[in-house]
Amino acid sequence: MTPLQAAVLGVIQGVTEFLPISSSAHLILTSRWLGWQDQGLHFDMAANSGSLLALIAYFREDLRTLLGAWMESLSALRSRSKSGKTGEMSDEARLVWLLGIATLPVAVVGFLGQDLVASAARSALLIATTSILFGLLLGVADRVSPERRSLDLAQIGFKAALIIGAAQALALIPGTSRSGMTITAALFLGFSRSAAARFALLLAIPVGLLVGAKDLADMAAGGLLREELPALGIGFALSAVAAYLVIGWLLRWVREHTLTGFVAYRIVLGLAIIALLTR
Known about the structure:
Mean pLDDT: 86
Strand content: under 5%
Number of helices: 12
Distance between the termini: 29 Å
Radius of gyration: 19 Å
């Protein structure tokens, strides 16, 4: 992989990872359209790690608060088990537990369906189809009963977390978009755009850690060549910078705008892929 290829794919990964437009689809299609060899597991891991680092850096204060509250909840649970008394859990600790619950479906589906995702699910026609269909679904969720979408993060419950997590599991199919599916499900459940986007981004952290752990194990089994390091470094750095900028922009955007632009982009992307396939 040349430095130019690493730079282009790193930026694409960072820009598209947290927007509801599917990063995997853009990476797969960019390599195919430009005639580049598949970037491979090692580059995917480096670029994904860059995006994850950006996410952790952006939410560092929130994460410090959430993890502190969660540790306190563990101590409180141990004390209650000894005393037999029950007590209230803070909103922050509760959110951490719900993020864990929402992560379970993608962990299970990812383990069971990894062979499908790695082969048949990477077809250009499937990417075009999922881009259009789930883009339209996002548009419907964004338009249906907007006056009722007033729930915030503190109002997410066990059932909602499980439903959002199940929707997220569909994003293992390229073209679907992990953030797109989580935001769509949250909107249908009555959450505001801001709450839906924020939960989707926070949920990307445990999912990213799981994916990173698996990729690291696969990389350790296959080995790493020294000549790969420059390209991996470029992909990691540019993905991190691009993702950090996009996260802040997205959270500002959803406070004042609809998601129509993302829906239109997904439809145009899907139609363009189909047009290229039928030429």
